[in-house]
């Protein structure tokens, strides 16, 4: 537990701080205008789907560098990290047009024309932030695998402060800056992502000069690139399956009106903030599992998994209690007291938070299982399990209960509960099956 907390607490803090950047956007846009909040809810969901798919290459860096570090192979660690950056840049260039011309896609998905247009105005600026954002993901995982997690927390906390100040100036037109609304939020996000990447790159170069990450950076390395791609693309598609489920839910809620979409965005922010703790624990689990595999220590692998699961379950119970006890107070934080849409948004959002309390445990278990499976190098079967669980029972139940049965946004969210619960159960079974299988192989080998 000490080892996991020493690694995991800074990662948890950095995940919460990273999410605070997006939450700041939601808070300030909610105070600015409910229509702006609804449009950026749509746009940021669209951006995040593309980002988290490409983040698979960065997430693949952690277990591979952790295993290399455990074996003392620093050349391998450098090659993997550098090719993780190459793969991320190539992916960013591939998806850039999808963000620059997003309005037709959003209209085709049934969104109102004015919301689609406002979302595109945000994305035409925010799109350029995908390159530094993906680079940050690679460097965070590299530094975490090397056990250097405090700087990740410090850089992310600095980014939160910078984003809040720039948002305040550019969204509302304060301190002599122009009032840019959603475009101001997009400009702030791009600058913050770029500054975060530069800070982490500088720290990595100074802390591990022997790795020379950016020396002869453009030099190709086909073997390491293949390894990153082989492990990274299933992770990316797994991320796409999960975030796609939430984005599809945003699209379906968008059919129900602006107030429902704004409530969805607020409730999702609150649930996702709690989820960041589990993401941080999952990242720690990936690194610890990668270290254990690199050393061939199956006992440490199993013990570490049990500890991280227990920590996650304990935190889930706290969050469930808060969501049940204070739903209206949480939703109210995101809204201007004088906004005429406030009562309708609070009424919908209160019910959504109660559903979010239900899926806390399922959401925690599926992300922890994915982190543990990444640590042992298993990504393809989890990709298939997650895709089927999220999109067949999950999306199917959400559409059936929320849209067909007419329950509304709450019905859509009940579908999320179904998908996450099925995924969590199957992925946990998969991890413990692999642990038992490796133990049998070790016994047979002796």
Q: In a few lines, what is going on in this structure?
A:
By secondary structure, this protein is mostly helical. Helix content is 86%, strand content 0%. It has one domain (2-445).
List keywords for this structure.
446 residues, mainly alpha, 86% helix, 0% strand
Description:
With 446 residues, this protein is mainly alpha-helical. It has one domain. Helices cover 86% and strands 0% of the residues. It is built from 15 helices and no strands. Helix 1 packs antiparallel against helix 2 and helix 5 packs parallel to helix 8. The protein is globular. The mean pLDDT is 83.
Number of distinct beta strands: 0
Order of helices and strands: HHHHHHHHHHHHHHH
Biggest sheet descriptor: none
The number of helical elements comes to 15
Number of domains: 1
Terminal CA distance reads 29 Å
Helix content: over 70%
Radius of gyration from the CA trace?
21 Å
Nearest-integer average pLDDT: 83
Low-confidence stretches: none
Apparent shape: globular
Strand content: under 5%
Structural class estimated from helices and strands: mainly alpha
